[in-house]
Specification:
This protein is an alpha+beta fold. It is 33% helix and 26% strand. The chain contains 16 helices and 19 strands. The chain has a 9-stranded mixed beta sheet, sandwiched between helices. Strands 1, 2, 8, 9, 10, 11, 18 and 19 form an 8-stranded mixed beta sheet that branches. α1 crosses α13, α2 crosses α13 and α2 packs across α16 (480-493).
Length: 498
Amino acid sequence: MPDSTIRSNTDVVLIGAGIMSATLGLILKELQPEIKIDIYERLDIAAAESSDAWNNAGTGHSAFCELNYTPEKEDGSIDPKKAISIAESFEVSRQFWAYLVNQKYMDSPEKFIKSIPHMSFVWGEKNVDYLKKRFDVLHPNALFKDMEFSTDFSKLKEWMPLVMESRKESEKYAGTTMAIGTDVNFGELTRGMFKHLSQLEGVTLHFNHQVNKLKQREDGTWRIKIEDLATSQKRKVYTKFVFIGAGGGSLPLLEKANVPEGKGYGGFPVSGQWLKCTNPAVIAKHEAKVYGKASVGAPPMSVPHIDSRMINGEKALLFGPFAGFSTRFLKNGSYSDLPFSIKTDNVIPMLIAGYKNLPLTKYLIEQVRQSPKDRINALKEYVPKAVAKDWVLERAGQRVQVIKKDEKEGGVLEFGTEMITTADGSLAVLLGASPGASTAVSIMLELVTKCFKEESKTAEWQEKFKAMIPSFGQTLNDKPELLAEIRKNTSTVLKLNE
């Protein structure tokens, strides 16, 4: 019987049609317009997993309100490094999105980004002290100079009326606010980027296509075996560069690639759920993203927040997320994902990381066992007058936290985004979760400079980097005037002043 496998060659293969692949594809086409790119997605639409609006927080993560980015050290001091780094990265994302709008690559920016205040809210003496210390550390930085702090009951009521409703004035509360926060519909953004990408010469987008195998050949190129799930047609693609940006599906593909850089990595899946408000009167009372303090052992994606969102053109109000445990690596994945990911090279790091993170295991068990009443009680900590009939439970996204080998500890659980690149720069893989989508542009720029080293140094590419990102190669926190100018420009282009 003749072999009916389709064979083709391309310069770049992107696996997964999420925000990361869309960002990388657009950057590469700007840098090298003649480059040929094939994109393969297992589902039938782009941005259906982690990038979808219902599957992530929709917060333009800029560290304005997320308390997990400013941990308190044992000596009581606050470390601002991660918050500053994330705030810098989000400014880069804003510049790139503004560039896409200026170039007419994207339709109306109001479809994917809106202005909304970012607030933190805590209660109790210890937490109030923590928030004040956090404010004192962040406020002197240019990136956070517009942050306001208050313990004044009437001021907090003005900032977040729904949250302060029916509270006792005699108790201790504190809040911070940043008026320049954003709500981002990453699903809308991603689909808009792919719409433009797919119209470019040399770019082919394949939905319902599953990558089954990938192997590096002796000449350094990659052979990828793919199946069309709709027709069962087999395909072999040969390429010089592969990017795996498949969310929770990235780890199994990294294992199939069988590269030394991928040894020892494991994944710990965490599922999520939202409480969604169905009462228009309650939805109308809240116009902010209000983040609180996470419970002991909670993963970063489970920091409680009460959020105004714009989803599919409608205002929504969500609370959560509530964490859970599932052995799936993707919302549309298989229950065998976790067991099949355990290999001889990662079993020890996974066991050690599991043992060292018993509070997380305990927290997840408690979350899974929650009753509807427990969830409403958790909501009442942020919306005191909440009533169960106004809220319904919605399934959120699936995240896979990274577990990796560690020389000192044996195995560590990482809460964040991890990029793995091979020594020859022919393969890059993105693992992990928050702040992910918000910092996609910075992550992909780092990937490009690592995997396309020589080209990145050329005057032509350097010039194009600066056209896309005016602050490229600079930090904005130490250049207040440049930061103010860039924020003003991106706010105007993205219509954030309206």
